[in-house]
Structure formats: structure tokens, C-alpha cells
Amino acid sequence: MASASSGPSSVGFSSADPGVPSCASSSASGIKRPMASEVPYASGMPMKKIGHRGVDSSGETTYKKTTSSALKGAIQLGITHTVGSLSTKPERDVLMQDFYVVESIFFPSEGSNLTPAHHYNDFRFKTYAPVAFRYFRELFGIRPDDYLYSLCSEPLIELCSSGASGSLFYVSSDDEFIIKTVQHKEAEFLQKLLPGYYMNLNQNPRTLLPKFYGLYCVQAGGKNIRIVVMNNLLPRSVKMHIKYDLKGSTYKRRASQKEREKPLPTFKDLDFLQDIPDGLFLDADMYNALCKTLQRDCLVLQSFKIMDYSLLMSIHNIDHAQREPLGNETQYSVDTRRPAPQKALYSTAMESIQGEARRGGTMETDDHMGGIPARNSKGERLLLYIGIIDILQSYR
């Protein structure tokens, strides 16, 4: 890790910075926590229904009574069609009315002159603001064929961890994109947010805010299942040793016992203060870039009247990983090979704060892998994977 001329700074997120989740000032992810079973929490245990997420009699995950396999198939069929049809339309500037367009196509199981036959129940697929989202994807260097290949060439992978709201999460097989089910109000809010989001990204694509690449709806069994496609903050090819959801608040900000029993729990602010009382060491330039990005992003969120967001921080301990025996992996480190260079620009935490877009290659070194280099108070080398999450809720 490069050090500043004055040496590495003992730095953290200052609580004096308005709206910036507070971290502290210098220490560890050499944290010894009693880890629960390494077996995913779904295995062998009957899963309770959380929100719209449930399990059918065969043990398969369902969402609004649609099986996960049927939902994945519908998503891939729908995205293949909508991206293909969009490619026939000439490129042009985004107009105000583009933010409010909704395109809809019916997929009967027997097929039609526009859609292929499939073995799922009939469904309808809606695409929101297709021209606007095409622009967002282009802004981040995502070509239509890359978007299609990532999402539709291989089966989507369902992630075991669901949100507290019962959202379903899928990741593309190349680790590039996350697909998340969202509630009606969240999808509605994203639609309202799009013009301002467009303006903000135009001014500065280097941000820790979520990168939204598509908003869709699968209508099946009389239910609307809304999904959003986003950048993947946490590559599965990098083992995460500990993870925090930080709000800069301490009121009821401790992970529940149920959360702690998961293979990779999401800890909260009080846990962070207990585990890492001295904070984290970052290089001075890296710290300044991170603070500048966070402060700017928080001002954007404030302008949209968004309050209930979090800073997700996942930590990979390089020194711990080098001591761990090969094959000692969890569901979060399923692939020990080097991750392929990501297709999207500004998609990693490192790029988001430095703004150094790749040109014909990858800026990720063997040491960084897209993470922000840091150290704990023991001097152990860390990689921080950071992003702002849960922005689709507003307070009026």
C-alpha cells in the first residue's frame, strides 16, 4: 500500500462531517467473533416467510408465490427481449418523457410471433424508462451485448441472504450485476428519482451511490414482482471476513442474535465501535478521496430528501486470507480464482473514490482487487468494499 509522504494517516470517518456515517480512527478486522455454523441458514431448517419471500413444499424459494426458478427464467427472457428490441432503435439524447415510458410485452408459454416458447406459466414483462437506463449503462461503459451476456448467458445465482424486508437477491454468473426485488413504493420512488439521478450522474459518475442499470416488473399469477439491476458491491471471488451496515447512529444499532447466527452476519454501528475501537488506517490521499466522495454523495441524498440509507462496508483481511488453508471457503467465496476485469466503469469502491476509469485493461492490482487498501491497529492489510445502500426510501 502506497503511503503518503508524511506516512500513513490514522484516519476514520469524522462524526463532525454532517450526514457521513461515522467510523472512528484506526484498527482491526482481526476480529475474533464466535461464527455460527458455516452452513447457510436455510439448510436443514424450515425457513419462515419474510415479507413476500417464502418456501414452497419442495423447499424452493418463492416470491409472491412464484418460484425462484420461474422468476429467474422470466427475468432472463424479458431482459433478452427488451435489450434486443432497444438495439433496433436509433440512439439519441435522453428527453424528459423518456423517464416515464413503460414498455410491456406478454410471454405466453406457447410463444408468440414476438416471444419464444418457454416452460414457465404465462407472464408479462415491463421495462421502465428503457432509453434512460440505456444511457445510464452507456455512461458506465456497459455495452448491450455485455449486459445481455452477463445477465442471460448463464443461470442467475440466488444469494442466500435476503434483506430484512424479505427481498430476493440474484447475482450474475460473472459477478458483475446484482438483481434485487423491490417493493412497489421503492420502484415508484426510483422512477421519480430518475431525472435527478440522471443529472447527478452526468455531473459526476464517480460515486458510492448505487448504480442502477435497469428497472423491470414481472407480472405472474396476478402479482407484480418489481426488480432492479445494480452494480455488485461484494465480489463472491473475494472472501469477506466481516461486514457492517453503518448509519452513523448508535440507537438500536447492534446486530440481532438471529443475524449473528448467519455464516456472514451484517453487524452494525455498536458492533463496529466494539470490534474496531481505534478505527481503520487509510493512506492520507485515499482517506481524503473517500471523505470527499461520501460528503458529496450525502449532499445529493439530502437534496432528494433521502434519510434512511446506510454505508455497507465489507472487509477482506489479506493477511488472514493468506494464512487460511485452501478450500476453507463459504458461500461468499465460491471462486478463488482472480476475478475477471469488470465491464462497468467506476464499478469498484476503489474506482468510485479515485475516478480512474480503466482504459483497455484493469487498474486492479493483485493486492487491491477493487477494494480500498487499509490497515488495522495490528498492521494487518485489509481491503474495504464500500458503497451506499438502501436509498429508495424517502421522508417527506
UniProtKB/TrEMBL annotation:
Alphabetic keyword roster: ATP-binding, Cytoplasm, Kinase, Nucleotide-binding, Transferase
Quote the subcellular location field of this record: Cytoplasm
Q: Which InterPro entries match?
A: PInositol-4-P-4/5-kinase_C_sf, PInositol-4-P-4/5-kinase_core, PInositol-4-P-5-kinase_N, PInositol-4/5-P-5/4-kinase
User: What processes does the entry annotate via GO biological process terms?
Assistant: phosphatidylinositol phosphate biosynthetic process
Q: Which GO terms describe its molecular function?
A: 1-phosphatidylinositol-4-phosphate 5-kinase activity; ATP binding
Q: Name one GO cellular component term.
A: cytoplasm
Q: Where is the composition biased (Low complexity)?
A: 1-16
Give every PIPK domain span: 67-396
Any Pfam family hit: PIP5K
Enumerate the residue ranges of region (Disordered).
1-31
- Can you say what this protein is called? Phosphatidylinositol-4-phosphate 5-kinase
From which organism does this entry originate?
Lynx pardinus (Iberian lynx)
